[in-house]
From TrEMBL, chain A:
It catalyses: 2 L-glutamate + NADP(+) = L-glutamine + 2-oxoglutarate + NADPH + H(+). It comes from Methanospirillum hungatei. Its EC number is 1.4.1.13. This is Archaeal glutamate synthase [NADPH]. The keyword Amino-acid biosynthesis applies.
TrEMBL record, chain B:
CDD domains: GlxB. InterPro entries: GATase_2_dom (IPR017932), Glu_synth_lsu_1 (IPR012375), Ntn_hydrolases_N (IPR029055). It comes from Methanospirillum purgamenti. SUPFAM superfamilies: N-terminal nucleophile aminohydrolases (Ntn hydrolases) (SSF56235). It comes from the Archaea. One of its GO terms (molecular function) is transferase activity. PROSITE patterns: GATASE_TYPE_2. PANTHER family: AMIDOPHOSPHORIBOSYLTRANSFERASE. The active site is at C2 (for gatase activity). Residues 2-350 form the Glutamine amidotransferase type-2 domain. The keyword Ribosomal protein does not apply. Keywords: Glutamine amidotransferase, Transferase. This is Glutamine amidotransferase family protein. Coiled coil: none annotated.
Amino acid sequence: MIIGSRPTKFQVVVDKNQCMLCGRCVENCSYNVFRMEPEGIITNTRNCVACHRCISQCPRDAISIKERPCDYRSHPVWTAQIKENIFKQAESGKILLGGMGNAGQYPILFDHLVLDACQVTNPSIDPLREPMELRTYIGKKPKQLEFIQTPEEDTSLVTELVPNLKLETPIMIGHMSYGAISLNAHKAMAKAVSEIGTFMGTGEGGLHEALYPYQNNMIVQVASGRFGVDVNYLERGAAIEIKIGQGAKPGIGGHLPGEKVCADVSCTRMIPEGSDAISPAPHHDIYSIEDLKQLVLSLKEATEWKKPVFVKIAAVHNVAAIAAGIARSGADAVVIDGFRGGTGAAPSVFRDHVGIPIEAAVAAVDAKLRKQGIRNEVSIIASGGIRQSADVAKAICLGADAVYIGTAALVAMGCRVCGTCYRGLCSWGIATQRPDLVTRLNPDEAANNVKNLIDAWTLELAELMGAAGINSIESLRGNRDRLRGYMLDQSMLDVLDVNAIGA
Amino acid sequence: MCGIIGVIDKQRELMDGSSIRDALSIMDERGSGEGAGYAAYGVYPDYADLYAIHVFYDNLVEPKTQVEDLLETWGMIEHDEEIPTWEQNGITKIHTPWRYFFRPKTRLMQRSKTPDDEIVKHIVMEVNKSIKGALVFSSGKNIGVFKASGWPEEVADFYRVEKYEGYLWLAHNRYPTNTPGWWGGAHPFNLLNWSVVHNGEITSYGTNRRYIESFGYDCTMYTDTEVVAYLMDLLVRRHGLTQELAVRALAPPFWEEIERMPENEQKFTTALRLTYGSAMMNGPFAIAVASPDSIVGFSDRIKLRPLVIGEHDNRIFISSEEAAIRTIDSAISRIYMPKAGHPIVGRTVT
């Protein structure tokens, strides 16, 4: 039985009156949509992923891309998407892949939470005229301080603080590996975070030499594949992150196809060129929280207890209890990646159906850690679905110390979230290793864009805090009073521990 | 708005409540007639070793029986009586204030450095959280809080505060904005020996509340000031900070300032800020905290509420307004306004 071709997603039109036949679209489209013919530019619409590279490069604005709806017989349950997935799987017998974050139709909780502002009874604070403190320290803090008081009334501190990461803004860039994204993309983000005074993750792909100048602002990752991990790598990071899971694909591992493992990637990852880099779901030395503790302590020992160790998990149903276990494993921070977290490639069934939203996960983890009296033992980093400064403020109100952004940083560099990163054809030079595409991303310009984005969000965050009469980030953290739920049901309000609007 | 006035006599010389009543009344414009109150230290010399537990009862049957059962479980009531009151035109008597002089059985609270305080703290939290129709509003030794909904002079006359003699007084005139004007919401707020009066609004309340609750304190009074009393109890009694250090944790210097400090002080202040970040208070406030041997006044870090200090002979005054201080002591000459966040401490010498 032949299923036949499925409807195309996009329609690409070149306005012949505008087009000057410069051929930039042909040159720029890595998906082979355009072809130069004597009669003009011909398009193969079927190949288009709506990455918009052609539009951005056309000097005459001659190209337009439209979604091309094609009605199937309508049905409330058997939607077009469901039917097409079945067609694809009936043909291939394979798992369906998807890039970027969850594309399911779930309500976005951030958009159902509103922030507070002062009126009359207390003054808002103007960040242009008053100090506004967004500095954040990530890592363990003691429950209490011990002092020695001398008879002369001099007080000296006995408690030694363990190393913390000092962030000038509570916004960091999460882990995206070299391999999944290009070296130029990495360089751009590394430059940006080092200029801002914040941090980025290396991902599980090791640390390329080109990033050594930025190592004081890099968090190195230890994932199950242990790619690129040796003591030199650990020593170079400002902090170490053990990746147990990620929001886009909780419970499963990662896979970088051999085609993307070029000579440079192979060196950085310490694997043979052209071989598939498979990181399994479990770490084969971690089958319990006790095992995790051993790895946390080993990494600390290997780096002479000078570096904080984070543990990253995907937000799942029992995330609060898991995070409490992690806090007790000696980790300095727990990173929680919500179900909207991005990825280069994931089985779309995982991406769209496994895990929980970051908003609920952070609220539940913060509540559990406080209930157990160990909130100070561990910092909370929220990631997965942070799209704007308001999301940052809301995540912090719900209990996060800081956030990781991923997709937003990529978008700042040009990414159009076309969701086809796994094909390695990223026309913007971000999620690709193809040399001709990689050179399209100028690391300095892109660094500037990323820096601008984080700077802009930081300014907005300062304004939001000032409006709420708060001049330091500590007083926003876990401050549920500054949030209200809009059109959320009572059970959701209970989990988030916020009142409804008007209450 | 809100008006605060506090005075300590360093030699523990006693003052009756009449002048503090007048000083508070002069700030009537800072209130709305919906709450006023007084805290006095040294008022129960006959029972100085016992905890004076003041309770508001909605009725004298069910809640009273439950409170007394709880007190008897954890210790002995050596004496109890209704707190005498005299009806005032402006005050509708909603609750019956009662006082117990209580001795805890310390052996019931193991593994605590301060088992008697810990028992009383537990009782206060338990009553306020679980016993409907009862609210403990004062629980220290040899101290008493007297508060209600009404204007300062009415509340003073209701309790006849001029009949009490203390060496340290705190008083508060309330202008409730966020929460209802009710008896429990009037200041001073008290836990054990800590009493707090506050003018302002603590915008970090959500953070502070979640922090303090993780140490076993339950916030039940619907108002931000409550956390200050609990934070002082945690930081000073349980964690061993001095009052000055506790204030430094609650209203710490800005990072910019910390960076300019000498190395040792910088390390110390950073540690304090990192450890007690969730205890730090934000928003506009001027606060006075009393304990049996001291009174501490401090404002928020950018001084969004007024705070005036007066010193004369053995007395230190803390108030929202100079006029209030002058009402008590017209001869006073040293009057000043402290730096934002900077604690002013008055201590007894005996």
